[in-house]
Design a protein that fits this description.
The complex is a heterodimer of chains A (278) and B (322).
Chain A (H helix, E strand, L loop, with lengths): L2 E12 L2 E12 L3 E5 L6 H9 L6 E9 L2 E2 L5 H7 L4 E4 L13 H13 L3 H14 L5 H5 L8 H13 L5 E5 L7 H18 L2 E6 L2 H7 L2 E6 L2 E7 H6 L4 H10 L13 H5 L7
Parallel strand pairs in A: 3-8, 3-9, 6-7, 7-8
Antiparallel strand pairs in A: 1-2, 1-4, 4-5, 9-10
Helix pairs in contact in A: 3-4, 3-6, 4-6, 6-7
Chain B lengths: L1 H30 L4 H6 L5 H11 L5 H13 L13 H36 L4 H14 L3 H15 L15 H35 L2 H8 L4 H31 L1 H6 L5 H10 L3 H29 L1 H11 L1
Classes of the chains: A alpha/beta (278), B mainly alpha (322).
Chain lengths: 278, 322
C-alpha cells in the first residue's frame, strides 16, 4: 500500500509560541489513522494544516505531501482546488456547519458543481442519490429543507454527503460525532465506516475518545503538547502502551475498572510514575 | 405563496400603523397652541373677524369630522391647502419632497457602496495595521457632523477649486447634469459620515460570519476566500447591516434639514421649518405625516427584506400565522 499522506518534521507556530514541534505521520491509501490527544495537543492544527485552513498568522515549516503534491507553501487557489475534491473534512459542529440561509440540497450540489462542473439536472440526481446513501430518509424533502429544519444527526449526515460526494482520497474527521447524542453517535460512526469503505478513502480521524477511535481506525497516534508520543496498530497501543501519557489516557477512559472507594486516576499520576500500568 | 401571504400581512400592518399615526399627528398638531386664523389676521385683529375666518376655514367644526376629511384628502392626494397662500399643499411640498428624497436615498446608497467593501476589508484585516487604521478612522468620522464635512467639501471643491456649485438646486427633469452637480457635495457630505457608522456594523457582521462554522465549511469544500464570502457570507452579514441601514435612511429623511440649509437645497426639512415659523399648520401637519409615513415604510421594507433573506424568520412567521 502506497503512502497517500506523508507529513515530515511539520512545525507550526503562532506568534512566539510553537504549537507543533515537528511531527512525522504517514497515512497509506485507504488506511484509517486516528489521532488522539487532549485539546491543545496539536491534533486539530495538524488537520487544518493539511487542509490549508490555518489562519494566515500561522508559520508552517516542514513537509506535507498528499499523493506526491507538496502542500506546504501551496497558494490558497492551489489548496482550494484540492479541498472538497481530493481531501475533505468533516467537523465537530453539525448544528452550525451548514449555511442557515441556503437549502441543504443546494449546499451539497455546490460541492459537486464546484469541482466537476456538473450541469444542474445531473447534479441534483447525484445529490439525491448521495443523501439517500448517507441514510437520510426522504432525500428529496431533505434536499429542499433548510438546515434549521433538520436534526443534528441529519445535518451531520448531510455534511458527510458533502465531504464524500466527490470521492476524495482522504477524509479528515475532526471529532465528527462529539456534538451528537450517544445513540446518534453510534449510527453516524457506523455510517462513516461504511461510506469510507465504499469510497475506498483514507481517513485521518481526530478524537479525544479512545472508544470512538478504536471503532473506526486501524492505527493510532497519540499526541501530547505538539508532539507524537506514541503510535502503532490500535490493538497494540491499547494493550501495551509504551508512553506514560498513553497509559494515563487508557486508565482514565476505563473508569468502570476502578475499584470503588479509590480516587479516580488523573494523567499526572502516570507522569510521576505513582501509578502502575493497567 | 406563503411568502406572498407574509408580505401581504406586513403591508396590512403597515396600513394599520399609518392610520393610527395619522390620527396621532392630526391630534397633536391640533392640540398645539396657536390659532391659524389669528395668525393670518395678525396681532391687532378683533375676535369677531377671527371667529368669522375660523368659520370660513371650517376650523369651528368638530375635530373628528375634520380628521376624516383630512384623511380622505390624504388618500386622494389632496391634503388640503396652505393656510397662508391658499395654494394646494401637494404642489408646495411635492418638489421639496423630491429634493429630500434624492438627497437621503442617494446619500444612503453611496454610504452602503462605500461601507460594504471597506467594512469587509477591515474585517478580514482586523489584526493588521491597515484594518486597525480603518477602524480607528471610522470612529473619528462617525463623530463629525454632516454639516462640517459639507462646509469643508464646499470650501475645497466649490470655493477653492470651483469644480462644483456651492449651493442651490436644479430639478432632475429640467437639467440632469446640473441636478447631479448640485447634489454631489451634499450627498458626499452625508455619505461619508453615514458610511463611517455603517462600516463598523458591516465589519462586525463580517467578523461574525468569518468565524462561523458554515464559512469554514464553505472554505473546506473548496471555495476560495472571496467566492466563499460572496456565496455564504454576504446574505448572512446583510441581515444585520440592513437593519442599521434602514434606521440610518429613516433618520436621514428627517435629519437632512441641516445639510439642506448648508447647501441651500429647497428640501422638505427647510419647508417644515418655514411652515412652523409661519404657523402654517396644514403644511406642518402634511410634512410631519410624510416623515412618519417614510419611517414606517422603511421599517416595513426592512422587515420584508429580513423575510426574503432568512428562512428562519420565514419559519417563525409561518408558525405565528397558522
Amino acid at each position: 500500500m502506497g503512502a497517500l499522506l506523508r507529513i515530515r518534521d511539520l512545525r507550526i507556530g503562532f506568534g512566539r509560541a510553537e504549537a507543533l514541534h515537528g511531527i512525522d505521520l504517514t497515512v497509506g491509501e485507504g488506511a484509517r489513522v486516528g489521532i488522539i490527544g487532549e485539546s491543545g495537543s496539536g491534533k486539530s492544527v495538524t488537520a487544518l494544516a493539511t487542509m490549508g485552513l490555518l489562519p494566515d498568522t500561522a508559520r508552517v515549516s516542514g513537509s506535507i505531501e498528499l499523493g506526491g503534491r507538496q502542500l506546504v507553501g501551496l497558494s490558497d487557489t492551489g489548496f482550494a482546488r484540492l479541498r472538497g475534491d481530493v481531501v475533505s473534512m468533516i467537523f465537530q459542529e453539525p448544528m452550525t456547519a451548514l449555511d442557515p440561509t441556503m437549502r441543504v440540497g443546494r449546499q451539497v450540489a455546490e460541492v459537486l458543481r464546484l469541482h466537476q462542473g456538473a450541469p444542474a439536472g445531473r447534479a441534483r440526481e447525484r445529490v439525491i442519490e448521495m443523501l439517500s446513501q448517507v441514510g437520510l430518509p426522504d432525500p428529496e424533502r431533505i434536499s429542499m429543507s433548510f438546515p434549521h429544519q433538520l436534526s443534528g444527526g441529519q445535518r451531520q449526515r448531510a455534511l458527510i454527503a458533502m465531504a464524500l460526494i466527490n470521492q476524495p482520497e482522504l477524509v479528515i474527521c475532526d471529532e465528527p460525532t462529539t456534538a451528537l447524542d450517544v445513540t446518534v453517535q453510534a449510527r453516524v460512526l457506523r455510517l462513516l465506516d461504511e461510506q469510507l469503505d465504499a469510497a475506498g478513502a483514507a481517513c485521518l480521524f481526530i478524537s479525544h475518545d479512545l472508544a470512538v477511535v478504536s471503532q473506526v481506525c486501524d492505527e493510532v497516534l497519540v499526541m501530547y503538547r505538539g508532539t507524537i508520543v506514541e503510535s502503532g496498530p490500535i490493538a497494540q497501543v491499547l494493550e501495551n502502551p509504551q508512553h506514560p501519557y498513553t497509559a494515563g489516557l487508557i486508565a482514565t477512559a476505563r473508569i468502570d475498572q476502578i475499584e470503588p472507594g479509590r480516587p479516580l486516576p488523573v494523567i499526572e499520576n502516570f507522569w510521576d510514575g505513582k501509578e502502575g500500568r493497567p | 405563496m406563503r411568502a406572498l401571504g407574509a408580505i401581504a400581512r406586513q403591508l396590512l400592518s403597515l396600513a394599520g400603523s399609518l392610520l393610527i399615526a395619522s390620527f396621532i399627528v392630526f391630534a397633536l398638531i391640533n392640540a398645539l397652541p396657536g390659532d391659524v386664523a389669528a395668525t393670518i389676521l395678525g396681532p391687532n385683529s378683533d375676535p369677531a373677524s377671527i371667529a368669522a375666518l375660523r368659520e370660513r376655514m371650517g376650523l369651528d367644526r368638530p375635530l373628528l369630522l375634520r380628521y376624516v376629511e383630512w384623511l380622505g384628502g390624504l388618500l386622494t392626494g389632496q391634503p388640503g391647502s396652505s393656510a397662508l397662500s391658499g395654494a394646494p399643499i401637494g404642489s408646495i411640498i411635492g418638489p421639496k419632497l423630491a429634493v429630500t428624497a434624492w438627497l437621503a436615498t442617494l446619500s444612503m446608497l453611496m454610504g452602503v457602496v462605500l461601507a460594504v467593501p471597506t467594512g469587509l476589508y477591515s474585517a478580514v484585516r482586523r489584526k493588521r495595521a491597515d484594518g486597525v487604521i480603518i477602524s480607528g478612522l471610522t470612529q473619528v468620522a462617525m463623530a463629525v457632523p454632516h454639516f462640517l464635512v459639507g462646509l469643508v467639501l464646499m470650501i475645497v471643491f466649490a470655493v477653492t477649486l470651483r469644480w462644483l456649485p456651492a449651493n442651490g438646486y436644479t430639478p432632475l427633469t429640467s437639467n440632469p447634469l446640473q441636478w447631479l452637480r448640485h447634489l454631489v457635495l451634499p450627498v458626499a457630505a452625508i455619505a461619508v459620515v453615514e458610511a463611517a457608522m455603517l462600516i463598523r456594523y458591516v465589519r462586525s457582521a463580517f467578523i461574525d460570519v468569518l468565524n462561523e462554522d458554515y464559512f469554514r465549511t464553505a472554505r473546506a469544500v473548496g471555495w476560495r476566500f472571496v467566492p466563499a464570502v460572496i456565496r455564504h457570507g454576504l446574505r448572512n452579514a446583510s441581515l444585520e447591516v440592513i437593519t442599521v441601514a434602514g434606521l440610518q435612511l429613516a433618520s436621514l429623511f428627517v435629519g437632512s434639514i441641516v445639510v439642506e440649509n448648508v447647501f441651500l437645497l429647497p428640501g422638505l426639512g427647510s419647508q417644515l421649518l418655514t411652515a412652523v415659523n409661519q404657523r402654517d399648520l396644514p403644511v406642518v401637519q402634511a410634512i410631519v405625516m410624510i416623515f412618519v409615513a417614510i419611517v414606517l415604510v422603511i421599517n416595513t421594507v426592512v422587515d420584508i427584506c429580513y423575510h426574503l433573506l432568512d428562512p428562519r424568520v420565514r419559519a417563525q412567521d409561518e408558525e405565528t400565522s397558522s
